[in-house]
Amino acid sequence: AADKIRLIPQDFFAELCEQIIQHLNHKIPGINTAELCQRIQTSGVDINIGDLAKIANSLSFLFSTAARNNLSTEELVTTLGSGVSPLPKHAVQVIRHVWNEQGKAIAVSEDAGDMATVGQFVDMKWKLGVAMSSDTCRSLKYPYVTVTLTVADTAGQITDKSFEMTIPQFKNFFRQFKEMASVLETV
Amino acid sequence: MAALGDGDFAALQILLKAPSKDAVRQLCQECFSSPPAALRPLAQRAGPGLAVSAEEAEQLVFALHNLTRHVVYRGLTRAEDILCLFPENFHQNLKNLLTKIILENISAWRNEAQASQISLPRLVDMDWRVDIKTSSDSIARMAVPTCLLQLKIQEDAALCGNNPVVSALTVELSKETLDTMLEGLGRIRDQLSAVANK
Q1: What are the residue boundaries of the structural domains of chain A, listed by start?
Q2: How many Å lie between the alpha carbon of A154 and the closest alpha carbon of chain B?
């Protein structure tokens, strides 16, 4: 991953580290890898989302381990330098800066919300549409609901999942959620 | 969806060689359901039963596919509308038989067309469970209710053919996030009622 880190421009790398620290501090629900990757690619850098995700995971692990062991900035930088493949200088600079500013604030959290064994729901967007026509039926008038769920996976990476429902499916979906809410109330 | 040409109707008359009305019925259904790419193999299977050459079987199968798909595309539901698709000199009894078969199947075929049209992945199943987190390695005692939801989502059927890919999305919801979700769903429901009343 070190050689891929070399490709990321300094300001984007700083933004990535910022997001990771904020996520570890529970200030944001997750790391927007997809969106960041898009912007990095637009700036002309050839990096794919898989590589960026691996880098984000490694950095997240680095920061959380350093927090748990209460490492000072100098100790963290020394540890980085002693790795098998040294990080590029600009990356070490960013990490040093970010850790100095915010590293100590990473609380070893007592929050119950920390136990992320499955994806965490972040947001839901929806659309109600009517399909008017298609190559198989000139006059359809078929209503459907499209939903996009934004989920932060166990590593904190944010992904979107979109799917469609027919109206009867939607009604059942809604009914199930109401039932879940009432069980959560009474439990 | 192009209208049928004379060649198509000429090919349809090959059905006069069919062994029975049920054989015609069966072939109509298979020709409608088959995607264009699978028509040639279908013709190879159907040819022997009709005692025609491979070429004639192919012409018939394509014509029947075009006819049935055309009726569904145009949304024709009345016998008169289907009958007038045929040219003047078309065999009377065969015309009536085909019209009858089409009318019997039209609603199932329309549903089939709707189900296989392009779409985003579809929700096929949902399961949920409410848990209470009672303790963890960092907190000895707590009573946090939490909801686990698993959605099974099937990728676009048209892209996967006969082996649809189903992926499972497992998500944890807290009371707050569940309320956010409910609020969103409630708005959809309100919109649906508003649209239904128009």
Answers
A1: 1-105, 120-185
A2: 10
**Three-class secondary structure assignment of B26-37:** HHHHHHHHCCHH
Mean pLDDT per block of 10 residues along chain B (198 residues) reads 79 89 92 89 87 90 94 92 91 93 94 82 91 81 88 77 79 90 91 79
**Which of B75, B128, B144 has its CB closest to that of A176?**
B128
Residues from chain B that touch A143, judged by Cβ atoms under 8 A, are 192, 195
pTM: 0.71
Q: What is the pLDDT of residues A110-156, one digit of tens each?
A: 444 455 568 888 888 999 999 899 888 898 888 899 999 999 987 78
ipTM tops the 0.85 cut: no
B32 found inside a domain: yes
Domain containing B133 equals 122-197
Residues B165 and B67 in one domain: no
Q: Do residues B108 and B10 share a domain? A: yes
> A149 vs chain B: nearest CA distance in angstroms?
10
Chain B CB contacts of A128 below 8 Å = 188, 191-192, 195
Nearest to B192 among A119, A122, A167 (CB): A167
CA B87 from centre of chain: 30
Q: Give dist(CA B153, CA A161) in Å, integer.
A: 9
Pick the CATH number of A120-185 from 3.10.450, 2.60.40, 3.30.750, 2.30.29: 3.10.450
E strands along chain B, which residues? 122-133, 144-154, 166-173
The C-alpha atoms of residue A107 and residue B42 are separated, in whole angstroms, by 67
Query: 């330098």: which residue's tokens?
Result: A81
